[in-house]
Every structure is written in structure tokens, then in C-alpha cells.
């Protein structure tokens, strides 16, 4: 008797687990719809085949993209992330593609056994300026190949995607931990409705954020403490 009761409980637990495993994405999807509908948070979409370069501040090997989403949510300075489905790499960015459009590039990459093979690949691509070789994952990535320049590479890119942080993303320059380089960068990152006011800036990249007034109409700052020449940034 007792053992059949235990069995029943085990069966119940197993079916709950089955439900969770099969329907968690439905739950996740409906959460996203809620954020879209409520209008305050815009819907963010995965952009396939692309990554944001030069803003990565943390990188992990994580088995699924939703774990990367969780990591991003735990870091106050995370603005967006890149995830590679094939190699299961999660990269957190401290900028969005809107702030740094020049660093938003297609990620043609190959799994190659040695770094010199990566040099060979780069030599074969007219738009390749340099390459990165990751020894741990044995990935060869070519830099400065735009999607437009080499659409055929876009197809061969492994499954990288880029997405802006879904929830709780602090606007660039709104906290001292995430200073912007310029008023222009803030407006680019957060849209044309960004209001004039005080923001955290670190124009000299010295790691010292200062609260400075940005006039968002003409995207210049007004501060006696900052060298006037820096206003051109
Ligand atoms: C953002 O990430 C870049 C690239 O890793 C790094 O050089 C920079 O110091 C970071 N900025 C902040 C404010 O964390
Ligand atoms: C690629 O590199 C060239 C030369 O270094 C530079 O002029 C161009 O702006 C770069 N393009 C991108 C998208 O980074």
C-alpha cells in the first residue's frame, strides 16, 4: 500500500516536471507579450548572425540562451548580449548596438583546429582586417567583415545572435557604473526622446564618471569642469 502511494507521488512529480520542461517556453513567451502590450518596455528581438564587438565585459560557456539572459539580468551594466548556439558562448555587453552601431558586425566564424588556419581564412576574405582565434573553443573569427560586404559569410556564420536586454536595462549614463562617452552616445542608445539633464559621463575613458548636464537637442554638454574641446566628442 505504502509503496503504491509513493509511486503515485513520484508519478505526479514526474508529470509536473514534464509539464515544466515542455511548457516553460510558453510561459516565457507570454511574459514577453505582457511586456510588449504594457507599452513601457519595448519588445526586443534576437538578431541572428550578428554580434556587438568591443563592448564585451564578461564571457561564459552556458548551455542555453535563457541562462545568458539571466546572467545579463544580474549585472547592472549589462545592456545587451551575444549568444552562440553552436559553441554555447554567452557574452555580456556594456553597450547596445544603438550606442555603438559601428561595432555591430556579422560574425563569420569557423571551427578551426589551429590559429594559423584562421590567418589563412582572413587572407581569403577581401574585407578581413584582422582575426581572433579562441584557443579554448577553437573558433576563428574574422573582424571587420560587414554583412553587406560578404553576404555568403553571413550564411556560414555559426549561430550567433544579439539581443538587447529585455528587462531592467538602465539607460546609458543613468548610473555611475555605466558612464557614457558622450551625450550623443546616450541619445543614440536611448532614442530621440531622451531628455536634457544630468548624466554620468566618462569622455576620457579614465574610469572616472562625472555627472554632467547634456543638452539633448544639439547633443553637447555644459560644464565648467570639462575642457571645452571635449564637447566635440
Ligand atoms: C565596457 O566594456 C569595455 C570592453 O570590454 C571596457 O573596455 C570598458 O571599460 C567597459 N566600460 C564600463 C563602463 O564598464
Ligand atoms: C573596417 O576597417 C576599415 C579600415 O581599417 C575602416 O575604415 C572601416 O570603418 C571599418 N569598418 C567597420 C564596419 O568597422
The sequence of SSEs as H and E is HEEEHEEEEHEEHEHEEE
Percentage of residues assigned to helices: 25-40%
Termini gap:
78 Å
Beta-strand residue fraction: 15-25%
The count of β-strands is 13
> Major sheet: size, sense and barrel closure?
5 strands, antiparallel
Bound molecule types: 2-acetamido-2-deoxy-beta-D-glucopyranose
Write the layout of secondary structure elements.
Blueprint: H1 2-38, E1 47-48, E2 50-52, E3 56-61, H2 65-74, E4 80-84, E5 89-93, E6 104-106, E7 109-111, H3 115-124, E8 130-134, E9 139-143, H4 151-156, E10 160-164, H5 183-190, E11 197-201, E12 210-215, E13 220-222
Antiparallel strand pairs: 1-10, 2-6, 3-5, 4-5, 4-10, 7-9, 8-9, 11-12, 12-13
This protein binds 2-acetamido-2-deoxy-beta-D-glucopyranose (2 copies).
Keywords: Signal
InterPro entries: Pan_app (IPR003609)
Domain Apple: 41-118
Report on the structure:
There is one protein chain. By secondary structure, the chain is of the alpha+beta class. The chain has three domains: 50-107, no CATH class; 112-169, no CATH class; 172-224, 2-Layer Sandwich (Transcription Regulator spoIIAA), CATH 3.30.750. The protein is built from five helices and 13 strands. Strands 1-10-4-5-3 form a five-stranded antiparallel sheet, covered by helices on one side. It has a three-stranded antiparallel sheet with strand order 7-9-8, covered by helices on one side. The protein has a three-stranded antiparallel sheet with strand order 11-12-13, with no helix packed on it. Mean pLDDT is 76; it is low at 22-41, 147-156 and 227-233. Bound molecules: 2-acetamido-2-deoxy-beta-D-glucopyranose (2 copies). One 2-acetamido-2-deoxy-beta-D-glucopyranose binds next to strand 3. One 2-acetamido-2-deoxy-beta-D-glucopyranose is lined by residues 102, 129, 144, 146.
Amino acid at each position: 500500500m505504502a509503496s503504491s502511494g509513493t509511486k503515485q507521488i513520484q508519478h505526479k512529480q514526474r508529470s509536473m516536471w514534464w509539464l515544466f520542461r515542455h511548457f516553460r517556453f510558453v510561459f516565457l513567451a507570454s511574459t514577453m507579450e505582457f511586456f510588449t502590450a504594457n507599452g513601457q518596455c519595448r519588445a526586443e528581438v534576437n538578431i541572428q548572425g550578428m554580434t556587438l564587438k568591443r563592448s564585451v565585459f564578461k564571457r561564459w560557456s552556458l548551455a542555453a540562451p535563457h541562462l545568458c539572459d539571466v546572467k545579463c539580468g544580474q549585472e547592472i551594466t549589462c545592456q545587451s548580449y551575444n549568444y552562440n548556439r553552436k559553441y554555447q558562448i554567452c557574452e555580456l555587453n556594456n553597450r547596445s548596438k544603438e550606442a555603438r552601431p559601428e561595432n555591430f558586425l556579422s560574425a563569420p566564424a569557423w571551427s578551426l583546429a589551429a590559429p594559423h588556419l584562421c590567418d589563412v581564412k582572413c587572407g581569403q576574405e577581401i574585407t578581413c582586417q584582422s582575426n581572433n582565434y579562441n584557443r579554448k573553443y577553437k573558433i576563428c573569427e574574422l573582424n571587420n567583415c560587414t554583412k553587406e560586404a560578404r553576404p555568403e559569410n553571413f550564411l556560414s556564420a555559426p549561430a550567433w545572435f544579439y539581443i538587447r536586454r529585455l528587462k531592467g536595462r538602465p539607460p546609458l549614463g543613468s548610473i555611475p557604473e555605466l558612464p557614457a562617452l558622450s551625450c550623443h552616445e546616450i541619445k543614440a542608445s536611448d532614442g530621440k526622446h531622451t531628455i536634457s539633464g544630468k548624466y554620468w559621463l566618462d569622455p576620457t575613458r579614465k574610469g572616472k564618471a562625472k555627472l554632467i548636464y547634456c543638452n539633448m537637442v544639439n547633443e553637447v554638454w555644459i560644464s565648467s569642469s570639462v575642457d571645452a574641446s571635449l564637447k566635440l566628442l
